[in-house]
Design a protein that fits this description.
Helix content: 40-55%
Distance between the termini: 15 Å
Number of domains: 2
Number of helices: 21
Strand order of the largest sheet: 4-10-9-8-7-5-6
CATH topology of the largest domain: Aspartate Aminotransferase, domain 2
Largest sheet: 7 strands, mixed
CATH superfamily of the largest domain: Type I PLP-dependent aspartate aminotransferase-like (Major domain)
CATH class of the largest domain: Alpha Beta
Strand content: 5-15%
Structural class: alpha/beta
Number of strands: 16
Radius of gyration: 23 Å
Length: 478
Amino acid sequence: MAEPTRETTAVRAALSVIADVDPVIADAIAGELGNQRRQLKLIASENYASPATLLAMGNWLSDKYAEGTVGHRFYAGCEFVDVVEARAAELARQLFDVPHAYVQPHSGIDANLVAFWAVLAQRVELPGLERLGAKHVNDLSPADWEKLRLELGGQRMLGMSLDAGGHLTHGFRPNISGKLFDQRSYGTDPETELLDYAEVRRLAVEFRPLVIVAGYSAYPRRLDFAAMREIADEVGATLMVDMAHFAGLVAGKVFTGDFDPVRHAQIVTTTTHKSLRGPRGGLVLCQPELAEFVDKGCPMVLGGPLPHVMAAKAVALAEATQPSFADYAQRIVANAAALAEGLMRRGARLVTSGTENHLVLLDVATSYGVTGRQAESALLDGGIVTNRNAIPRDANGAWYTSGVRLGTPALTTLGLGTAEMDEVADLIHGVLSATTPAAAAAGPSKAKYAVAGGAADASRSRAAELLARFPLYPQIEL
C-alpha cells in the first residue's frame, strides 16, 4: 500500500484536530470536498485553489492584528506580517507589471470601496483641504467638514448596467456604492448585445462623472480599455476597472494591448479567488498618483488586514507567475469557445452569439422555454453547478432571470479540454431540453420544473464519469 501523500497527511491531521472540538464542522468540511468532487463546476466566479494556497490560510498568522501598512503598523510585533504583505505586493506588481499593489482587501467589494475612496480622496478631499488651508480632515471646523462631507457624497459614477453584465458594486442602489455615488449606467446594443463605445462616450459627455467603471461579471466579450480611457480623459473622469472575473486572463497574458486594463486604467481592482485560483480576497492595483490614498484603505474602509489570507494570496500569486499559468489562461478561453460552439451547434442561443473570455451566457428562455432559476435547479439535478443570470433587457427580472452563466476556469483547472467541453455542452443541452415549467395556479411556474425521461440521472452519471477521468485534488485521499 502506497504511503499517503503530504497533502493527504496534512488534511487528515487537520480534520482530526477540528473533529476533536466540533465533529459537525469537520464533517461539513469533508462533505464540501465530496460535493465538489461529484459536480461539474461551471460557476464562472469559482475555481479550485491549490492545496498550498488552502493550507497557507490555516495558521497562526490569523491571530495577529496588523492595522496600517508594511513598516508602519498600529500594533507591535508585525515583522512577519510585514514579510508576508511585502511579498504578496511584490508578486502582484511583478505579475501585472504595475507600479503599486495593495493586497489587504478582504473581498471584491472591499477592493472596490478602497478604490472609490482613494479616487475621492485624491480628486475631492485633497483639493478641498488645500482650498480650506488644512492638512487633515481633523483640522476642519464642523461647518467646513460638513461642506466637504457633502461634496464627497455628491459625486457621479458611470458603469455598466446589471442586465448587460455589470456588477452590483458598481454604483447600484442596493449596494453601498449606489448610496455613495449618483450613478448612471451604460448598456449594450440591442441588436448585437455588444458594448457600444460611442454610446458610452455620449453618456459620459452628458453626465460628466468623476469615475467611469469598466469591468463585468456576465459579459462574454473583451473590453477595449484604451477606448474607455480615451472617453474618461475626454470628460475628466478617473477610469477604474474591476477585473475580478478576468484577472487570470490578464495575468496569463491572454488579454494584452488595448484589452489589458492595467495598461490603461488609473486604478484596477480584482478578487483573487476566481480565474487567479487564489484564496477569497481582493487586490487594488494603481498608478503612483493614487498609491498613498490606496494605502489608507485601512482605516479608511478596512479594519485589520487578514495576514493568513495575505499569505495565501502570495502563494497563489507565486503560482500565477509560473509559465504553466499562461498556458492555463489560454486553455480557459479555448474551453469557453468550445463550450459556446457546442451549445450553439445544438441550437442554443447565447448572448452576443459567442464568447471571447472565460464565460458563456446562455439564454435559456429563448432556447428551452424555462427561466434561469428553473435551468439552474435542473442542471444541479444533473450534476452540473451553474448560476442563473440576467440577460440584456431580461423579461423575467433579476430573481428568476432568463439566463444561465457558464464559466470554464474551474473545469480547466481539473484538466478538461475542448473535447470534454463539447461533452459538457451535450449534458447541458440534454438536461434543459427535457426540462419544462411546472404548472402553477396563475399559469406556468417560474421556479418549479420537471425533468422528463431520466435525463437528470443520465447527466449525473455521465458527469461522474468525466470527473473520474479528471479528479479534484487527486493527491488528497480522505
